[in-house]
Amino acid sequence: MTPRSAASRRAGRAARRGDAPRPAGPAPDRAALRAAALSHVARFSTTVAGMERVLTRVMQRWGRRAQAEGMEPADIAARIGESAPDIAAVIADMQALGAIDDARFSESRARSLTRAGRSRRAIGAHLAARGVDGAVVTQAMEETLGARGEEGRETELAAALVFVRKRRAGPFRRPEEEGEAAATRDRRAMEAMARSGFSRDIALRALEMDAQEAEERIWRMKSA
């Protein structure tokens, strides 16, 4: 028996459920890709690389439906390949409209992640994973978090305090938690902070800080 393709299996499952498979129709053209892009940016903020992935998936979904209807894989691959200029043009259009802006995305994401207790290193990795250029990431973080100097360290410390507060460690420990239990909680928080990209110096300062000062620093960071 000849093995069935994944597309054929999906079509078979849809038929058994009584669902009418969606016709493949013609391959998405530039207008269809633009409509998909507008629909996406209306709901989500994204990057150039993120939008490229979204539109590529639009073409791939069409390809799976076309294959289920019997279209030759080589013809499908050729049509998907031909869509590259359309995808690039749609992305350029979204940038011209201001719907996609990697710098603005990076600044907004850096600010929100810092307030959520993420380290500078973790934020850089997060943005890089979304395809943002390294120079754009560096500039965005310097503008929102401060340069790698005293200002940047103060922001990083405030983020570390948010992290510690979530762990109920250091100045945020429960009053009844003392001795070995307190030491164990702080040690585990220290290990977690190292894994999350905080330096040892920042982690120690956060864990050893007075509770009132810690709350004030968090408030100032989130109010900025």
Structural features, described:
This protein is mainly alpha-helical and 224 residues long. The protein has 2 domains: 27-97, no CATH class; 102-223, no CATH class. 73% of the residues lie in helices and 0% in strands. The chain has helices at residues 6-17, 30-43, 48-68, 73-82, 84-97, 102-115, 120-129, 134-145, 150-167, 179-195, 200-208, 211-223. Helix 9 crosses helix 11.
Poorly predicted tracts of residues: none
Fraction in beta strands: under 5%
Class from secondary-structure proportions: mainly alpha
Profile the largest sheet.
none
> How many runs of DSSP E, i.e. beta strands?
0
Cα-to-Cα separation, first versus last residue = 66 Å
Q: Which of globular, elongated, flat, extended, rod-shaped describes the shape?
A: elongated
The structural domain count equals 2
SSE sequence, one letter per element: HHHHHHHHHHHH
Total number of helices: 12
Radius of gyration, in Å, reads 25 Å
Helix content: over 70%
Short description:
Helix 3 (48-68) runs antiparallel to helix 4 (73-82) and helix 6 (102-115) runs antiparallel to helix 7. The chain has 12 helices and no strands.
Secondary-structure blueprint of this entry?
Elements: H1 6-17, H2 30-43, H3 48-68, H4 73-82, H5 84-97, H6 102-115, H7 120-129, H8 134-145, H9 150-167, H10 179-195, H11 200-208, H12 211-223
Helix pairs in contact: 1-3, 2-3, 2-5, 3-4, 3-5, 6-7, 6-8, 7-8, 9-11, 9-12, 10-11
